[in-house]
Structure formats: structure tokens, C-alpha cells
Batch of 4 targets.
Target 1
Amino acid sequence: MYRFAFSVIITFFCLQAGSQELFMPRDIQQAFKKGTRSPDGRPGKNYWQNYGRYTIIITAMPPDRTVKGSETITYINNSPDTLRNINIKLFLNIHKPGAPRNGGASTDYLTSGVSVDNFSINSQKTNWPPGQFTNQQVHLSRPLMPKDSIQLAFDWHYEISLKSGREGMIDSTTYFLAYFYPRVAVYDDYNGWDRMNFMDSHEFYSDFNDYNVTIIVPKNYIVWGTGTLQKPESVLQPVFADRFKASLASDKVIRIITKEDLTAGNITARNPLNAWQFTSSNIPDVAFGISDHYVWDGSSVVVDDATGRRASAQAAYNDTAADYHYVSGYARHSLNWFSHKWPGIPYPYEKTTIFQGYADMEYPMMANNSTFPDTAFSRFVAEHEIAHTYMPFYMGINETRYGFMDEGWATALELLIGYDDIGKQRAETIFKRFRVQGWTNSNASEMQIPIITPGDAMTGAGFGNNIYGKAAVAYLAMKDLLGDELFRKCLHEYMIRWNGKHPLPWDFFNTFNNASGKNLDWFWNNWFFSTHYNDMAIGDVKKSSAGYTISIKNMGGFFYPMDVVLKYADGTTETKHLTPAVWEKNAKQIAVPVTTRKKIETVQLEGGIFMDADAGNNRFSADEKKGF
């Protein structure tokens, strides 16, 4: 049954990829018919989006593993629909035995999950429904009408996982708190309630909300997290509060708290418990790290030249992690580069904090990154996670279903910043090894599933390559096709139109078509809706009245740029660069004219990061062809 269904899907996408019109699922079609999405790529005249205001108080008392929370959510229904149920996400129930997940779970991973101790709707105490895992539907005795709001209140607790990754215990007195609070699922214009279970391999989909979060911890514990730290002088001793404030305006790295400071103690206010309050607005999530033995570095950089606005670049880590002594500087470099080069949009938040953990995972204004012996790799990981600030957080992407809309961009940006960091040759060598060769050199069927395939329907290497490397080279192929100036114009238009909203792949495709003034559907079909792969071949090299004609065959189907490197008998060389545009009208084979009076000795196709599945047919030699 599985094999039959798979073959039907692949055949369908192949047929669609052969036409110019982009395939669009029926639920997405309905959004366009209702006017919430527009064919020109803009949000439609009827576009809407729901929103919440979260007030959360968390108490964490390491080494006690029980984390307690209370929360109120004011949820506003901006939709035209009457909501008779409300969907709540409890992501940490992924740790419960029996929870559906992609992959196994060790004993250290498993916990009892989230226990909801009290729950009320509009101040009316309500029984919490039992039995589900990361996705819980709650019936509303009084429906939530359009343009109306509802208030939800929770008291809950959970046992922090000993070994997780994205969140959990780093060591006995260092916790990373993420996905820790009950939240209202996204209710959107094309799919209604997001009822997809969190399976631990895929990522997330969140609304833009306002947060007021207080983390209560014992004295001598420091808290780092999403948002603006309110009244730092109320939780830090004056010398450290002053250093922290100075770092927010400093181009140099300031050691806010050092190993020596930790040894001496007396860092925080001397209350038995301190309440660290953070506020943030119009943001899709929050995360926090706490520790009593992490050092703290901070710096800043101007990210918006027009206003002079600065963003802070911080690092929190165990002093024994040698690479982390450089991480605040790496973060500062990333904020500067992404703001001014690619994507060239000022970093939208006030700060980023890299917290030493195990996940190598992004959160708004935070990253939970491992320590590495190679500082170049530490920088590489930090840059990738900070790049995620734009996609998915600034752009509100549904990562669960369309992960290529965020991971693909972060992967493309990691290469582009790598060019400046370590040079083109080394950056491309790393990129090809980590992001391209796995799927290019594989004959496995799962590697040829179209990128557009919903991520929640996939697992394994095919899923990973679709959302990371394959999508990244698709975006970079478009960059080559349009040229930097027009590509930047289109990318900026997409980000201006859709930041703070929930763009779909078709909104992205349509915006690029609209902003470029070109119908690029032939390209989108080829890269995102087809089962193609990378493989070019030299068909023939023939003499012509003007010189030569070189035939190039597209064996794998993808439209990507390449260099045709000509070596002449006199020892000189010439390189002809071909953009993906050469394949728009002739998808299978093209003829490349070469005007010259010289004799060609060799012809070589070089794709760079667009690795060829069969490089054995990428070279022509006159010595090997009799009578040439």
C-alpha cells in the first residue's frame, strides 16, 4: 500500500512539474478564494491573524527537577469564524512514555510530562481534559465569537528532562527552559487549528504574541532569555548591573561575569529568591537559560544605520568551554553581517544570547549551542542559528509543514556569510560536504521527493535534505538567475510584506514573480515540485563557422548554474557562466556557442556547490575524439 501511494504521489508531482502553473493544494486554494492570500504575493484584503497576550510566572529551584508555572493568556480571535473549541499545545508531553515521536527515547529522556493542576476559562474553573499528548482540544461552553477574546488561566508543573536536547537539564544546576508553557495553537486562514502532534524531529508553528515572563530562581542564579530584562539592578549587584548596561552600548566584548566573580559570589541580589522579569512583543516564542556557575559576556553592534539602533550579542557558558570565550564576538559579527549583507534587513530584535547546551537550536533571541574543539565550527553553528531569526521567527513560518522555508534560508545564509569568514573555496568545500553531496550522490527514492511535500508527512534523510541542502541550493540558483540586485529586491519585498505574518510557499513564489516582473513558475516548478536531481553532461562539441557549438544535456532535470571552462591549445582558458535561465525554454538540452579562432583542447563543466551526480560525463577532450 505504501509503495503504491508513493508512486502515485511522485507521478502526480512529475505531471505538475511539466506545466507552468504551480500545483496548489485545495486548502491553500480556498485561502486565495476567500481573499486572505493574493495572487500577486501580498497578504489578501481579507487576511487576518489571531494573537495572544501571555503573562507567565515560572519557579525553578535547581537541583530540584520540578518546574512550576502559572499563566494567563488573553487570546484574541481576529478570524471571521466562531470558535467552539480551542487547541492547546503542551510540547513537553513529548517526554511522556507512549507519546508519538519519530525515534526512540532513553530513560533519561522520559518524564511524566506536563501536569495541569488548575485550569479556568474566563475565571470559571474548568476540568482539564485527560488523555492526549502534545496537542489538546478543549471544548468551549461559550463559543468565542469573531473579534472577541477569551482569557485562559493555567497552573501547571513538569519534571525537567535529564537528557533532551532542545530543552532540559544541561547539568544539575543549569537548566534550559523552552516549550515549557501551555500555549494556544495557531488557528489560520488555510488550515484552521494546527492539530499536528509534535514528534520531536520536526519543528514548530507559532503565532505572534506579547509576553511578560517572570522566572523565580534562588539567589546566585542568573537568568538569560528572550526579551528585555526589566530592572536589572533589582536582581544584580550594582557592579554587574553596570557592566551589563555598558555591554549594550559597547563595540568590544565586556566580561559581565567572570570565573573569578563566580568564585567570589555576591553577584545577585541577596534575597533568598530573585524574580527575573522579561518582556517582549510581537514574537512567536520565548526561551530561558538559568545557571549558578555560567560566566556571561556581552557586546553590541549597530544593526540599523538609519536609526543607529544597536543589538546586544551575549554568551552564557561554563568557563571551561574554550570556544565560548569567542562566541559573543561571533554573535556580534553575525548580527552585523546579516543586517548589512544578506538578507540585508536590520536584525529585528534587541539581542541574541548564545547559551551553552547541547541542541544547536534556535529560539527568538536565543540559541542553545554545543561547545566544539574547533572555534571555526562554533562560529559556523552560531551563524546558522542566528540566521533563523529571520526565518522562521521574523516571518512566522509553519516549520512543521514547510521547513524548507526556514532551514533552507538559514543554510543558504550560512554559505554566504562563510564566503566572508573563510573564503569561497573553503566555504563551498564545507557546504558541499555537509549540505549537498548526501542527496546528490544518493540513488535512494526518498532523496527525490519534491521539496514542496509537506514536512509532517515525511521523516528520515529525505526530509532533512529537502528542507536544508536541496532548498538552499534552490534559493542560491534563483540568486544566480536574477543577479544580486534583483534577487535582493525580491527577497526584501517578500520580507516586508510577510514579516509578523504567516507566509506560505505560494506567497513566496508569487512575491518573487511580482517583484521581479517575471513569471518564474518554470523555475519554482522545476526545483520545488519535481523529482529531479543534479546531473549535467557534455553531449558533443562540434566545429561551427564561428568556432564551436557545445551541446549540454540535462540528465538529472534540475535547472542550476554552471561554468563551462574552455582550455585552448595555446594554453589559454576561457570560462562561460550559464545561469539557470538557459533551461527555461529547453529543459533537456542546450547548445552553447563559442566564438573563437583557437582550437579547443578540453571542455569542463563545473557546478561548484551544484554538485553533479555523475561527474564522469562532464569533460570533453579533443585528444580522445578522433577527427576533431
Note: The first strand starts at residue 51 and ends at 60.
Target 2
Amino acid sequence: MRRLLALLVFATFSPLLCAEEPVTIGVLSHRGDEATVAHWSKTAEYLGEQLPGFHFTIVPLDFDEVDPAVGSGSVDFILVNPAIYVNLEVRHRVSRIATMKNSWKGRPYNLFGGVLFARAERYDLNQLTDLRGATMMAVDETSLGGFMMALRELKIVGINAYRELGKISFGGTHDNVVMAVREGRVDVGTVRTDILERMQDEGRIKLSEFRIINAHEHTTIGEHENFPLVHSTTLYPEWPFSKVRHTPNSLATSVSVALARMPQDHPAAVAGNYAGWTIPLDYQPVHDLLRELQLPPYQHQERFTLIDVVVRYWGWIFGGVVLLLFMVVMTSWVLRLNRALKAAKTQLELQHALILDSVADGIYGVDTEGNATFVNQAMESLTGWRADELIGRNQHLLLHHTHADGSHFPSGECPVYHTFRDNQARYVDDDVFWHKDGHSIPVEYSSTPIRNARGEATGAVVVFRNISERRRAAEESRQHQNEMAHVARLSTMGEMASGIAHELNQPLSAISNYTRGCIRMLQSAEGITQVGQMVAAMEQVAGQAERAGEIIRQLRRFVRKEAPESDWVDIEELLRSLLKFVQPELRKARVKLDLKLESSLPTLWAHGIQLEQVLLNLIRNAIDAMQDNEGERLLRVHACQEGSAVVIEVSDNGHGISREVQDKLFTPFVTTKKQGMGLGLSISKGIIESHGGEMGLHSKSGVGTTFTITIPLRREGMTHE
């Protein structure tokens, strides 16, 4: 771990120390860090000379540090034994670019093996079969020459090392294993080839101190040359030099070429005790070894025989046989059920027909050509068409060919056709079907697609009902609402009677005074000479009479029952006329009016008298709300167009309305007035909603109240008339 931290620090600060790009080579430290650096530093220097602009550094790695270093991308190249390489190839997709040629006494070779050895005086340990019960030390579980090769040789002679040896321990380095055997701490050791010879050359041991177990002799490399080192196992390809996944291919190619060009006697090769590099060898023998030992990456692969299959999966096999017998029984049972299902299907079809015929709504099916496929009895009774007259014929041409106004209804616009064309359900709340005798039937209907197993529409089902009774009930309800609104207007007029009487009294008194003055002038001697004054007085009489007549006309228009049909309403004219009507109340209550009307307000398609009633109710409520104001009493009436709607606001600066009252203010019989009936706002809201609009309220206690009316425009009313 300390090495990895040092490597990360080096990778972080090396660009600040030199201009060369750092390249790290991780090397398996199988003989200790000092020996690894000593053997491979010259190789790093050689690569730096061959590739200007790059600085190569050797990073010694213990067996357990190799995989984390490659996985984290801490190294750019890796030099490890072939077994570790195979695992890195599978786990991290490293790829070999060269194979090392080892050297012994000037003789190059690119294979290596394992050596099993004991102390020379252990005459009882000669063959592999002699190792049962003996203690053994290896380098590491991931060391190919220092453990795995020996493990395979023991397995070949029928020895399970973990079960039949006395004890297996690991020394971490080859040198530690050799010294442990020499000192008698274990019976047997295993290291890679050339370790014993090199330690003897270094003066640390003598080969005569050890006995080679299962010694192989006269092993050839190729066809003529004998392998020069003692060994106990099969030989495998030497260590590969590999690039890590993140390393650029261009750099890997340059390194591969530089290694291939290294002379056998180059100082880097001499320092590393090798004889240069060759093209990457075939590492299939290493794959075979790992697979045979069931070691990573083949730890989960086993060779199964038929007996193994039976032993391991006997339960599944037994279950399969039982399942097969069960399927045979089930097949015969299903055949019997199939016959019963056919009979049940016939019965269900009869029940389906009975259910359809028991429904009061008309139901019929349509295919993708628009032809009727089935009908129920209610359909026949509602339309007058018999089932045999409808099925197979185009339903649109028989039932839906004409609009309610008598205009032609093209089949391409029919909602039923659209249903099975776009696979979407539809609901139409107001339309007409045509009876066989030619009269129209007001209906509402739904059209739902019939889908196959793939979700595609294969037709539609139409369910409809006659809404004549509903229409009559709606008309009666509308008339009842009009009557209630009329009563409310009469009640309002009763409340306004005093103000209206005062307003009429003024012009009538003026008429009386002017008329009496004219009479006195006519009776006087100078009457003939006062014609001009009498003409002026009579003009005043005429003006006051017109004023009284206008008041009476407005009164009659407001209290009469409105016509049942809507018409185009000039909202500006309606507001100005209405405000003239309430002017007496405004003066009496000392209320100041703030009227703002947007220029060129559009006309509305509406009931003019109903709108007057709503606005009058809101204005009179605002006047009443300001009765307790000691200061200014201000009524604001604003109207403007917002998008495709007209918005009218009626505001006051009165005492406001609490939140509790606001939540139920539009409920019938709820009022803030001591003698109010609580119907005005409820009726007003219903009138606005009948026009397709909305009525809102904004108020804070002690601040004031604003009622907002929003009425949508019809296309014809988008411009001012």
C-alpha cells in the first residue's frame, strides 16, 4: 500500500519536476524490492533513451498489490508471471506486447518452470509421491513457478496438496522459500527455475545443499537445445511485458519495437539477467493449467461427466420425469377441457346476447369499414332499425348521415370512424342519430375501440342513449333559474325604490315649477312680452320630462323578463348605462366612482339583462360594504380584454371579508348582510358559469374586496362592433 501511495504522489508531482511525460512499469517483486529495482532500472533507462520525451520508472509490486495497481490505473505497463497476466487479461483487459527471453550463462530461453527441492540429506524425498505428509513452503498462491506449477504436478500423480501435505505456507519471495528449506524450517520448497542457480552465483547457497525432487532431464527448447536449468515441472512461456488498458496504443507500439531491438548483451539485459525480448508467445498452456486447477479466472469451471450430472442434478432429473408424466396426464385432461370449453363458449355467447339485450342503452359494434357487426334490442327499439337491416351495412349512412341543423355529415368526420382509426376512445355529449322513419333522436354516446392481442384497433363499440328527457329537464331548470333571477331583480328594485322615487321626484318637481311659472307669466299683463322666458322654461320642462322618461325606461328594462336567446352585447354601453341607473345610490351613499374601460372592448355573446343583474348585485354589495367607512368611499369598476376573454373587476375599499366567510360565500342562503337572503351571489355565479365564464373573489379582512368576472369570447366577438 505504501508503494501505491508513493506511486500516486510520483504521478501527481512528476510533471512539475521534469518536462518528460512519466511512464510507470509495475514489476512483480518476487525476490524483494531492492532486487527488483536493481534488475529492471537499466531497462527503464533503456526505454527512456529509445523514446525521447518519456521518463520510465520501475514500481516494485508485491503479489497482492498487482491487481489494485492495474485496476486503479496507477501503472502504464505491467511485468508479472503468466498466471497473474492471464487473470489481468480477463479482469482488466491488459494485453501482452512482448515476451522476455531469459538467459543463463549466455544461453537465451523463453520458457521457465518450477523446482521442488528439499535438503540434500532428505533421502526419503525423491519422487512426488514421497511428499505426502511433508511440510511445504511456496512463494505465493498466485506465483506460477513458485506454486501453481508444483500444484499441477502433484495433482497429476494423484496428490491433493491441500489435503495430503502436512502443511503449506508461503514465504512471499523466492529467496525466503530457499532459506526456509536450507534452515530446516520446512521439508520441501518450490520456486521458479533459475532461482537456485542465481543464488548460488551470488554466493548465498550451494546447489549441493539441496535435493531436486522429480527432476526433469534433457528437456528441449524447440528441437535441438536442452533447457539449461534444473526443474521439476512442465515448462511454460516466460513473463510477458503487457500494456494496461488506458495506455495509448501508439506508446505501446513504440515500447514493443524498442524492446524487440534490444541486443542480447545490452547493459539493461545484463543487469536484468535476461537476453532481450521476443514477440508475445502463446499463453494457452497457462490457461490450461489454471483451468485444470480450477484457479482464477477458471475457479467456477468444472468438467462434468454424465455421472456428475446425475449426482449433482438427480433432483432436477427426477423432477423432470415427474413433470413429463404430469404433462401427459395434463394433456389428456386439457383435451377433455377443450371439449367442455367449446360447449361453454356457446353458452357464453348466448349469455352475452342476453346481457346486451338487457341493457337499456343502445349498443352496436362497428368494423374498420364502418359496417355494423352486432346490435342489441335497445338499439332496435331506439332507432326503429331491425338487426338484420343494420348488420353488414354502413352505420353512418343509416344513423349519422346528417347534422342536427340538416347539413350533411361526411363519414370522414364521424367520431366513430376516428375511434378505430387512431385507436382512441371518445365521448360525445350532444349529437343526433336518425330514426328509421326520418326524425332525429338527441343522443349522447361513447365510442370505444375494439383491440386485438397486439393492441391494434379492429373496430369500435358504440353505446348511446336518448337524452330527450334530459334536455326537457335542463330547459325547465333553466326557466326556473330565470324565474328566480327575475324575482331577485324585483327584490333588488324594492330595495332601490326609495332612491328611484327620489330620482323621479326631482324632474317631476322641476316640471311642476317651470309649468306654474309659465302660467303666472301668461296671466300677467306683461305675459306677451315674456315669450322668450316662457320658451326657455318650456325647454327645461321638456328636458326634465325626458330625464324622468329615461329613468322609467331603465327601470322597465331591468324588471322585465329577459328573452330566452343570447345576443351580441356591447359591454362598454352596458356598464355606462348601468352606472347611470345606480347613480342615485352612489350620491346618497357618498361613494366616489373610478370607472376604467379599455378602448375598443369586444362585444360578448351573452344575456344582457343577466349580466346587468350580476353587475348591479356586485355594485350594490360594494356600496353596502363601505357604509361604515369614515373616510373616502371608493368604488372601482374596470373592464379590459385579456387574451380571448373579457375581464370585469368590481372593487371597494370597505371592511373586507374574512377567510371563513369567503370559502362559503357563493353557497345559497349565505350572506354578510343582516337582512340579506343569501341568493344574490349564488345566482350571479350560476349566471356567469352558464356563459362559460368564471367568477372569483379576493379579499382581506379590513382591506377591501374585489370580485372578478371572466367571460370567454366567441370567435365572432373578437373584434369590436
Note: The domain at 113-233 is CATH 3.40.190.10 (D-Maltodextrin-Binding Protein; domain 2).
Target 3
Amino acid sequence: MNHLSIFRRAISSLVVILPSCVAQESASSHKPPRVVVMCSVDQLASWVFDQSLPHFGEGGFRRLLREGVQFAECAYLQGCTETGPGHATLGTGAPANVHGIVHNEWYDEVEKKRVYCAGEPVAALAEFPEGKDRGPARLLVPTLGDLLKQKNPAARLVSVSAKDRSAILMAGGSADSVTWYDYSTGRFVTNTRWCKEAPKWLLDFNQAPAADAYFGWQWTRTGPDKAYADCVDDQPFEAAHLGSGGRTLPATLKGKPEAVLPAKEFYLEVYISPAVNELTLRAAKASCLANQVGEDDVTDLLCLSFSATDTIGHAFGPESVEARDGLLRLDALLAELLLWLDARVGRGNYTFLLSADHGVGHSPEWVKQNGGDGGRGLLHTMARGAAENALKEHFAAAKVEGAFVAQASEFSLVLDRERVVAAALAMGKTDAAAAFWQACEIAAQAAAKSKGVQQAFVTEKLVQGGATGDPISRAMFYAARTDRAGDVLLVLKPNWLEGTYAASHGSPYDYDRRVPLLAMGPGLARGTVSQAKVSPGLMTVIAAKALVVPTLKVATDTIPAEALQQR
């Protein structure tokens, strides 16, 4: 046993005074696993998973189904179905209105600018300048990882993803190692939030940019023809492959057709290909080895998020050959990861949990080709214009200069509170709060009539009203915070998108909220399908039980009885 393992056992033995709930859980007859893996597949909708399932191999997703529990009725509570909010829920067990990550970005009225969900003023390491200003400071509650390290400092906590916000928000600030891919340089990076010096393993991993090995790699179909029979290909709404200029496979990763050496365009192309998932798994293995994850009886936590499903889905659409192929390749990577864990810690000695941060809707053009309604456009701009015109008409007598709507983005409108109040006072209204509330109502009513908008909600009204029986308003309640979410929340019509992505997400509809949740490990039932209605935050609750950490107070889920191994 090496010195670090001896130290970890010594530290672990000091933690003897635990809350009663931990004492009860530790009395379980199941030996604690050596590693808990919390795995996220970015942009994996339940409908995409179900369509792809017949084409998976036996060692990845199918093994998890065969040896674990599938939660067939898993859906996010929140309607802000984006990467930041989803990974924060996976990390904390809480919905967005509690953990505070309401979007990937939002407008901060104090700073008077848009802020990033994983933004934090953190110094870069000299060797990795790309890693600066990233951290979990905008989370309002601790992650499971934070509580694990607080309860047992000897436990190792490692997090890896191609996206910074995914790795950071799943793990939190107490992690021993948090790394992510930078698509401008092709390297995996970190910063001083998690280490004082650049880790040797990461320097070794990046001796040449990690992505360079894929320069000239040909992305071909990995499955048989029948695996793609229900997919579409070479559609006008798909993005072109940067290295080949076409919209079909095979595609050669070069960044530009004429490129002879790796450059930033190539590193971006890696990011929107299956190659970045392969790199992520390599980085995760290297980090686990360097941090000695799973090397003794102290249960460690690995947070791992595969991002290529999202970047590919945005670029080519979830119906595309590229999306199906990326998922088939991920299935093979999961099989590789499970076999690696078998060899490293022993089959049955780890808990493996898998879910997604959000789902995805069909490409609007695909919907229309199949007889449905869908569309795209500058929907935020039009909603902002409609709200602005309505407010100007309402406050016409005040003759106040400037715009009443300060921001329109991330499915929300932010009003200029000072200008609204000034206009109300100029019209003789003395109750500033009531005047602002009325302005929000006017803006919401106008925006709801704008092109591509289904509904618009006043955020403060949602917060005060609580969770209702209506599924849309209920989902928006769990996305609403008056200090972050904006003053008016927009719900676009089903299958309507802002911008030029082939497909996207972010809505409160089932196709964005419903995602898979699979759990395999000691104490969990095998080959079982649970029909209990749960959220992906259940992943955190199951992980807490395996780690013998008190269930997070902010978590909304409990483990269904049928998911536990019966004795």
C-alpha cells in the first residue's frame, strides 16, 4: 500500500461522529463500493435513446439495463433544459430554482451584463492560460462532492468533461481534480481553483495538444447499414463538416479542407465529433490513475460528462446519421469504461449511474417534412420588439427616453427597472413595485403574441404562485428565480428554435425534459424497470447512499423501493 493510501485510511478512521441517517445507511449489509461514477450524456433525450437502443452492443448501455435499474419515467422538474442547469441538478439533486443555475448565461442586474453559469474570477495556471475565470461560485447550494469531501477528506473526487460547465457544476469546488477540453487549443485544462501547480498527469497528457492525434482521422459509420435506416442525411439544415465541406460521412477531421497542420478550426471540429468523447475518456482514466481513484477501501467519486452527443446534435440534428453514429460510438466507449472499472476495482465493487443533462427536439425542418408545425427565426428579437412597443404605448405620457427592455436572451426578457419606475412616477404612480409588476404583465402579454412564442410568464408571479398542476407553468416555476431568471420567461412553440442550429433544447416540453436514468451497483436491483416518476436528481440521491453521505437536503427525490435489491 502506498503512502497516499495509508494517509487516506488514517484520515477516514478519524471520521467517527456522523449524523444518525448515515449510521443507519452504513449498517447496510452491502459492502460500500470503491468508486461511484456519476456519468452524464449531454443531450440524450429518452426518445433518442429508445430509437437507438436496438442498435447498441451488449457491453455499454445494454449492460447497464441488464445488470441495473432503468427509471423509465425520469424527467427534469425545471423547464430550463440547458447544460448548466442540468449538470447542476445532477451535482446537487436540486431543481434550478434552488441551485440557482437557471440558464447557461443570464443577465445580472447588479453587474449590468450577461454572466456565465460557471464563471468565477479565478487565476489561470501559467501552463494553462485557457483555464482562467472558471469555477462553481454561482451555485447556491453545495454539490454532493462538496459534502463528500466535507464528511471524508480522504475520499478522492475527480471530474472530467469536454465542457467546463459540465465538469465544474457536477463536482463543485472541493474536487481534487476538475478538467475540461478547450476547443481553441485542443488541450484539457484546469485552473487554480483546484490546484496550486499544474498536475503532472495533465502536463503529460498535453505534451502535444491532446486532440492532435485525430488530425486527418476519418469519421466513418461504425455500425451496419440497418443501424442508420431511420436516419436522415445530407439535409440543408445540417451544418457542413469543417474538414470536408460536406454533410455526409465519411468526413475527415482537418478543420479546413486545405489544412496541413492542426489549428483552431480543427480543434473545434474535434469538439463536434465523436473524437472529443474518446479524448474525454482518456483524460478521465489518466486523472483517476494520477489521483489514485479506487485504490483502497475509501469510496471515491468520479464525475464524467460526455459532450459530443450535444455538439453533434446541435450541428446535424438528432435524426442525422452523425448523431446516431456518435451515440453508437459512445455505447462502445461505455463498454470500454465498464471493463476498465471491472479490471481496476473489480466487478460489483463500483456503482455506475448514468443520465443526461437535457433532451432535444427534432429539427424544425424535419418536423415540417413529416407533417408537423415547426419553425425558426430571431424569436427573441421579435418578442423584445413586441414587448418594447407595448411598454412605449403604455408609458407614452411619461415621455421617457430609451428602451424599456434591457435584454432578450435565454428564453427571457429583462426590463430596465429604473426606466420603468421613472416612467411610472412621471405618470403620477407612487407604488413603484406595483408599477413594475404591471409593466412585466404588459410585456408578457405582448411577447406571448409574437412569432414562435407559445406562452410568456411573469417570473415574480410564477415564484409567488408555486408549483401548479399545469405541466408547463409547473416546469417554469422550477426554472424561475427573480434574481437570475429575468423578468419575463418565454416558452417557444413546440419545435420552434432561435437561430441556425439544426436542433436545440431549452424548452419545458417532454422531449427536452425526459431523459434516461440508469443505475447499476451493490444494493441495486438487476434487470429492473421502475415506473416511479423521478427526476435526474435521483442520481445524486443514489450516489449519496453509496458514498454513505447524508442525503442532500435540497434533493427532491427518494429511491423507489423496487430499485433496491430485495433480500
Note: The chain has two domains: 30-365+511-560, 375-493.
Target 4
Amino acid sequence: MNTLDWVVIVAYLAGTLAVGVWFSQRAGRSVADFFASGRSLPWWLAGTSMAATTFSVDTPLYVTGLVARRGIAGNWEWWAFGISHVLMIYLFARLWRRSNVLTDIELTELRYGGQSAALLRGVRAFIFAVPINTIGMGYVLLAMRKVIEALGIWDAVQLDLPGEPRFWIVVGISVLVLIYAGLAGLWGVVVTDFFQFILALLGALLVVGFALPDVGGIAGIKLTLVETGLGDRLDFFPWSQVAQLSMTTFLAYLGIQWWAFRASDGGGIFIQRFISSKTEDDAAKAAWLFNVLHYLVRTWPWIVVALVALILYPGLADPEIGYIRLMLDYLPAGLLGLVAASFLAAFMSTVSTQINWGASYVVNDLYGRWLRPDASEHELVWVGRISSVAMVALAATAAFFAQDIGTVFRFMIAIGTGPGAVLILRWFWWRVNAVAELAAMLAGMLIAVLSYLPAFAGMDFGLRLAVTAFGSAAIWVPTMLLAKPEQPETLERFYRRTRPGGPGWRRQREATGLEPLQDLAADLQSSFWGIALLFAMMLGVGWLVFGIWAKAAATLAAASFFFYRLRRIGRRIEDVASP
């Protein structure tokens, strides 16, 4: 990297920190401003922020390593979440906005009652704010550490500090993002997310544009991979006998992962955007925008770069570094700095969100709920900032010791599998109780951790998901049925606030005299066609990129039909709602 590259990076950092200072006063006015943007986010800002949060510095590296090891089909590891991400558009986004809670965990004591609800809220807040969130931040910090090491930034700075360089790298980037996130609150996070997403996407496109011609374009990629015996890496599905992704794991992704994972009804970071949206419609539109940006817009630039890296750098000990090697070898001065800044943008958008999200649990669901219920708004905001420092310190420790991004990502999926079915059912069935949710969460985590013991080292990942999901179900289902139902007044309070649809709330409908604000049958139909539309568009664009014209045409034609069906349902609902 030369002087021009450094100028670009410093200019980006100065601009981002300026945004943090600009929004610091607004964020400090109240807890709602700091953690929920005063519930005034427009849909386009909320949706782009969701996409920026999931476009972190680790994701291009993760996809590069994934494609090298498992081919394009390996991306079903994260593509499968598209099912739950479409469901959140129609089933959950409006419900979350209507709940008017500050965090998703606060819903615990709205949906359940008594000591079991209070215990569940406290346990969930601690687990998600501390181990789950800090490990999640840790592998993002790990990715940033890899980028800085590979770009030679540390060597260029030439600081003579004791200990390992990677320790000081982690400390430096942790302090940087902590200052920005601690000042800005959610308003600063989402505003910078908008620009960071554009910059991060531009960075990926620049790497594609400069490196792709050197392998003969898309045609050269296909020809070279077939000639070198790596043609299976081009398969979109693991049908072939030499597929790098096992059929068991593929079926577990599509059949289990989306409903068993802890984010089945949205997930804390997305829910924070729904809660912060101006209206219920803004929340639903934000969810759709996220799906378009996440699955249609940025999937294929990452995959093309990964395949180019696989060809140009075969046999890398750490294939995740292939992306960085392409940047160093192909980008001219200035543009290298711009793409390096895009990595910083992706990193900061994700970690700043996770800091703000985790701190919201500490403030709202631990400190404000248990320690100081009468704390002032000013005190709570400062507790949020102090807890941010502690979480970043723990995340930095995780990043120092971790080595492989993909391994950590799969571990996070495994320990989060189990409670998803309960999180979905609690919205639509009155019989779900607090002890069932607590049992599902703890059982899933325990089974997943046990499955990583040396005795199960060779277990297929799909089998691990199945054992975790159904093993936890074998515990939480009888626990739910043996425990007492929630009190009628608790259930009626929840129903009055959220008004979900379906037969599961018939008793509460009759007791309150209030009709649901959700047409569950129509929303399920919309979800079905929406899922079909999303995957048809994603695969159709992919086949278009790789010049597989017949499949692209057929899939995009099917997508047109799915869109037509989706719009028909929407128009029917509008007609019924009209006077």
C-alpha cells in the first residue's frame, strides 16, 4: 500500500468518526434514542442497515474459503437462512413493531409471566449479550486481523511494541470501533451503515473487475476448473457423487436449520431494526429490502471472486486469504486503499451493530430490570457505553486465539440450534410457556457443545444439526406440557398488544373481543410464494452470470410467476381491508 491508499483510508476513518461525534448528542438523550433511534427509522435505511450488518469483513473471506473447500453448493450454509428471512417479512416484522418493546428479550415478560419469565429474561440477556455476542464479534475481529496482517498494514506502521503483533492489531481495531459505536448509538450506526454498505459492495465489484480478465472471464473459470479436476466446485446443488457438501448436511440446511436456529423469528439485530422502524409497513419493507440486497445483489460477486482465487492461488493453506491476495495483486494505487477502506466499512458496520445490540440487553434486560429499575436515562446510556467496553474486550480475546472463520461460523450455528421452533410457536399458540423456551435454549446449547467433544469429532455437520434440534425438542416439548400454562391475564395482555392471527389465540380473541390484526393464512401463502421467488431469482441470476442460459431463462420465468402469485395475495388482502 502506498501513500494514496493511506490517504483514502484515513479520509474514510475521519468521516466515520465525524458521524459518531455528530450523532453522540442525539444518541445520549434517552435509551430509546441510543438503542432504537427514537423508533423513527425509514424502511430504506433500516433495510440497508440490516444488509450492511450481515456484510462484514469476515463474509467475503468466509465465502472465499467456503467455495474453495465445498464449491458453490457450500453456500447453502447461509443461503438456507433465506427461508426464515422471508418468513420474518410476512409473519414477524409487523408483530415486532407492534409489540413496542425496546429489545427482543423484553418480549419475554410481555409474553410470559411470573418468576419463570423473569428468570428466562435474565438468562437469555446474559447468554446473548456475553458468550453469543462476544464470540460473534470475535470472529469478525479475527477476519479484520487477517486483513490487516495480509495487507501488511502492521509492518507499514512499524510500531515497536512488546508481545505478538496480532495482539496489538486486535487491540487497535477494537478501540477504533468502540469509540465510534459508543458515541453514535443506533442512529449513527444505521446512517453510516448506509454508506458503508455501498462502499463494501463497490469494493467487491472492483476486485471482480480487475481480477476476472486474468483468468479468461467466466468462460475461463469454467474451463480451467474442469481441466484441473475441480469442476464440481461449479455445482449449485450437491447432486454429483464428488460433491464437497454432503447430502445430509444440505438437507439439514434446508429442512432443519431455518426453523431450529435461535433467529427463527428474526434474530436480535434484525428485530432491533423492526422495533426502531417508523411504522409496521416500514418494518416489513425493510425486511424485503434486506433479502434483495443480501441474496440477490451481493451473493455472486463474492462467489466469482472466490472461484478466481481458487484458480490463481491453488493449495493455499488458508484459502480465506485468497480474497486479500487478489486485492494486493490486481488493484492499482488508490483503489487498493478504497477496497481496504471498504473492508473497514464492512467491519465497522457489523461490530458497531453488535456492540449496540449487546449493550441494549445489558442496559434494558439486566441492569435496568434487576439492579437499578429507577435509574435515570443518562445513567442507563452510560451503562450501555461501559458495557460496550467490556464486551469488546471479551471479543478481542476470542479473536486473538481463533484461526478459522468458517469453523467459528458453523460453531455459532450449532450452539444456536434448538430454540427456534419455540420462538416461532410462542407467537401463534397460547400453550407455549416460559419454561419451554428456557429448556429449548439450554438443551440446544448443551447438546451442541457435547457434539464437539473428541468422541464425536467426525460427525457430519448436518447430523449434528439434526441431533441438536430434535434432541432439544425431546426435552422442551414434555417440559412445556408438564408445566402449567401461562395465566389468562398474561396471555390476554400479550394478545391485546400484538394481535397475532391464527387459531392458537381463539380463547384470547373471545375473552378480549378483539379481532387479530394479522391474516395468518394469507401471510403463510405470501411466505410460500416469497420464498419461491427469492430462491428462483437468486439461482436465476447465478445461472445468468455463469452463462447457463436455459436454466437461467426457466428459473427467471418461474420467478415471474411466483411474483404474480405474491401480488395477487397482496391485492386480495387490500380489497378485503377496503371499506
Note: The mean pLDDT is 86.
